[in-house]
Amino acid sequence: MNSIKTVSVCGLGKLGACIAATMAARGFHVVGVDIDREKIKKINEGLAPLDEPLLAETIRAGQPRLRATLDPRETVATDATFFIPPSPSLADGSFSNEFLLKAMQPIAKAMKDAGKRDHLFVCSSTTTPGAVDAVLIPMLERELGGVCGQDFGVCYNPEFIALGDVINGLLDPDLVLIGESDPQSGAALEQLYTQYNRNSPRIARMSIVSAELTKISLNSYITMKISFTNQLRLIAARHPRADIHAILDALGSDSRIGKKYLRAGLSYGGPCFPRDNRLLAYTARQVGLEAPLAEASDRINERTKQELVEKVQQMARPGEAVAVLGVSYKPNTHITEEAAGLFLAQQLKRRGYRVLIHDFAATPANSPSLHEFELIPDWDKFRNDPGVRLAVICCPWPQYQELAPTAGTRVFTPWHL
Ligand SMILES: NC(=O)c1ccc[n+]([C@@H]2O[C@H](COP(=O)([O-])OP(=O)(O)OC[C@H]3O[C@@H](n4cnc5c(N)ncnc54)[C@H](O)[C@@H]3O)[C@@H](O)[C@H]2O)c1
Questions:
Q1: Is the CB of 370 under 6 A from ligand 1?
Q2: Is 1's pLDDT higher than 80?
């Protein structure tokens, strides 16, 4: 396989739009493909198709080399295609292959119709370990009428990014993970990353299933660390003179542990951590094992959400007004999926409280689950005169430090702001 100079990116969502934009900004010629006409239009106008810090600037920087299309046949002229459609969780904890199959099939057909060989298919969506080898590659071999590793290549190449900091996370990662069907495919992708990354990350190459397991294990390990802090916080709370922040600060000073994600707060949420951790438990069950650590992280996380609801119930009675401040799952993103604040707001509303919500990014327009709530429209007015019985800071947006308790309002937060 020759070196990769032109790429196509199929699936221009929260991750894919950022990959396409950064590739173009770093000098690659990029064709973006999506089924969403509006995203295609925005990108071709040089605009960001969604809210993500630095995305608009990056699209502008790469604009001469970036265009988007609805037509999968336009990928034929590129050397490699990155696939990043959704891979939603199913009820048993595994991830669906449906969107990946639907995205890959027309592109494979286009390659076959054009008589193109040696295309590199890169899967960046998170998959159930084993799915690329057992489901995606057999489909590609059928559609292309060829053998993977000889007539075309496949890599599994997930990214480790955090929403709200995706552009920097893509360009300066700690780790580039490459699962490869054959050494030539892995080498071509490794070479691409040496041009693409601004830093010099560790590039780990391995079999495809090893990379699938690595991806979900990394997130599962972080959720375990977060649940450990929550377990310790609950224990410390039963000791009136214990200070969880002092404890975790000291623990994190040990280099074997480290301070990252060792901060007392609330449950983890978002589109990756909870479901990647559950996927590891599913993967263990599939081979006749258990994954008690992953299951415990999930249980503690659910317990942490419930505990917040119970705590608030002790501080205010049904019918009283409670402000839930921060309903996104972390600062700098509007995503509310599995967020502690959204969970609290929903539970309080069901229990008869008057719930007012506020966030610096999430709104009913970008997070439709917020439609059922009363909004705090003006933060400056609210922080000077909250007029509610209780304000609970659920997401550690730094601006919430400005909120001082007043005579009539109690402010509660598990975060050390
Ligand atoms: N968002 C994250 O923080 C994050 C982080 C790591 C991994 N991932 C993984 O990346 C994948 C995508 O996540 P996302 O958050 O970017 O999803 P998303 O829903 O924001 O975007 C998916 C995009 O794929 C497009 N699409 C769907 N079917 C298509 C098809 N047949 N052809 C072309 N495009 C199609 C959609 O229109 C949409 O633009 C998932 O597997 C997810 O687990 C996401």
A1: no
A2: no
